[in-house]
Structure formats: structure tokens, C-alpha cells
Design goal:
Blueprint: E1 6-9, H1 27-40, E2 44-47, E3 49-50, E4 56-57, H2 60-73, E5 78-81, H3 91-94, E6 104-108, E7 112-115, E8 118-120, H4 124-136, E9 140-145, H5 148-159, E10 168-173, H6 183-190, E11 198-203, H7 208-217, E12 221-224, E13 231-233, E14 236-237, H8 241-254, H9 262-269
Parallel strand pairs: 1-2, 1-12, 2-5, 6-9, 9-10, 10-11, 11-12
Antiparallel strand pairs: 3-4, 7-8, 13-14
Helix pairs in contact: 1-2, 1-8
Length: 274
């Protein structure tokens, strides 16, 4: 079984300091949370950036400053900027981080109701456009799928040449408006992707650690972080992303999965493969 790749989603666009005081806003806070997750065992940092007041932004300059400082402290880490941004942002705004020298980014593969009047819009043409930009810029896409229909979209677009192998899926389960994160949901998603693909699981809220263990046991990979879940256990707030990563590392050790370094993660995923 391959070594376990841990991704840490350190802030997201929605979680705030009122939810958990460790959610980073400033450049310095973001870099520190990335570093702490990295030394705990994260090979990939899933990156959103904020203004100092916590407002989500896709500013190219803000991403550039944060990435530079993370790389100074974690030279080999894989930085995976979000092209999801925040609800309501335009295509061009969401794609700003891809104008930088990055090796990986997320590619959202379908539209989702986020609750109330919020709709996270990713039309088929949006997905094609984002996929083409990433292909042109040699950026490896992580295919974010919130339900089975999103996987089907990926497979259709793969047949049409928009999405190429190797394909790495991220099952984001438990989001309001998407699939729940029960065991049956995990297996339904896992069994729906090609056998030569890789996958990671991001469980939202209470689903984070149960899904992490299922993925570990089944040869998949894991995403944790304050974007997805602010608790170390029921009623106990995590004191930063480090504690969430450390919990997955212990889980992996109990199940005899070694932790992948960033360079090992690149090899497992096929990042940079022609």
C-alpha cells in the first residue's frame, strides 16, 4: 500500500476566528499554520488566503507573498492554491493564483447548494475553462467532487480530452447540499473512479476523522484542517491545524500506513509526469 499523503486545508474561505481563534488571516498567521501542519506530517498545504480582517481574497499578490514565505520555511512542501475562492467570485478572479509558478491547484467539478441562497457555481463550461488553463500552465489539478455526479462529469470531460491522466480526486463529503459522509457514501465514491486514479477524502465537521480512517484503511489519502473541521474531538476545539494533522498521523500508525514526504507525494500522484 502506498504511503499516506496528508493534505492540510489550513483556513478555507468561510471559517472564522469566531469559530476557532487559530484560523489564520494575516500572512504571518497563515505561514505559521502551514509550517506547523508541515512539520506534523502534511505533504500538501491547501491554500486559501485572506485579507488581514479575514475577508477571503484571490489576490495574486497576496498569494504570491504567502507562497514565498511558506516556501522559505517549508522548501519542499506542495502548495495547492484553491481556485474555488469564495461564493460569487468570477472565473477570472478565482483563477488568479494560477498565474503564479505553482505545481498544483484544486479544480471544482460541479455546482453545489451551500445553504440559504448561496450557490457555488461550476458550470460545465467553467470546468472546461479551468481545466484548459491548468493544462496550459502545467498545473496538476486535484479534482474536487462533492457528490457522485461530479465524478461523472470528470469522466465525461476526460473522454473529451479536457482532463488528462493521471487523475487525482478529492471526495469532499458532508458539505451542506452535497453528499453526506457516511461509510456507504465513501465506498460509492471510491468505487466510481477509475482503478488507476488516486483519491483523497475531506470529511466536513463530524465526518473528518471517521472518513480519514476509512481512507487510510482502503489505500486512499486524507485531507484535514480548520477549513473543514474546527474540533479535535467532540466539544474540544483544535489548537491549530497541527493537532488535526497529528491525529491523522497517529491513526495511520495504528493502521500501518507510513506518511509520505512531499517528494513521495509527487511521485504517488504523478505530479510533473509528462
Amino acid at each position: 500500500m502506498n504511503k499516506l499523503i496528508i493534505t492540510c486545508a489550513i483556513s478555507g474561505a468561510e471559517t472564522s476566528k469566531t469559530d476557532n481563534s487559530y484560523v489564520p488571516y494575516t500572512i504571518e498567521e497563515t505561514v505559521e499554520e502551514a509550517y506547523q501542519a508541515y512539520i506534523a506530517g502534511a505533504a500538501i498545504i491547501h491554500l486559501h488566503v485572506r485579507k488581514d480582517d479575514g475577508t477571503p481574497t484571490q489576490s495574486k499578490l497576496r498569494y504570491k507573498a504567502v507562497i514565498k514565505k511558506i516556501k522559505e520555511r517549508c522548501p519542499d512542501v506542495i502548495i495547492q492554491p484553491s481556485t474555488g475562492g469564495a461564493v460569487g467570485m468570477s472565473r477570472s478572479t478565482r483563477l488568479k493564483p494560477t498565474e503564479l509558478d505553482i505545481e498544483m491547484a484544486t479544480l471544482d467539478c460541479g455546482t453545489l447548494n451551500f445553504g440559504g441562497d448561496q450557490i457555488f457555481v461550476n458550470t460545465e463550461n467553467d470546468i472546461k475553462y479551468f481545466a484548459n488553463i491548468m493544462k496550459e500552465r502545467s498545473i496538476f489539478p486535484e479534482l474536487e467532487c462533492f457528490e457522485k455526479g461530479h465524478i461523472d462529469m470528470v469522466l465525461r470531460l476526460h473522454k473529451k480530452g479536457f482532463i488528462q491522466k493521471p487523475m487525482h480526486f478529492s471526495f469532499v463529503l458532508g458539505v451542506n447540499g452535497g453528499m453526506t459522509g457516511e461509510e456507504r457514501d465513501f465506498y460509492f465514491m471510491k468505487e466510481s473512479i477509475p482503478s488507476d486514479s488516486t483519491y483523497s477524502v475531506a470529511g466536513i465537521g463530524k465526518y473528518e476523522f471517521p472518513l480519514a480512517e476509512l481512507s487510510i484503511l482502503n489505500g486512499g489519502h486524507v485531507r484535514v484542517g480548520l477549513e473543514d473541521n474546527i474540533y479535535l474531538e467532540k466539544g474540544v476545539l483544535a489548537k491549530g491545524n497541527k493537532e488535526l494533522v497529528e491525529k491523522v498521523v497517529l491513526m495511520a500508525k495504528r493502521n500501518n500506513r507510513e506518511i509520505a514526504t512531499p517528494d513521495e507525494a509527487r511521485k504517488i500522484l504523478g505530479i510533473g509526469r509528462k
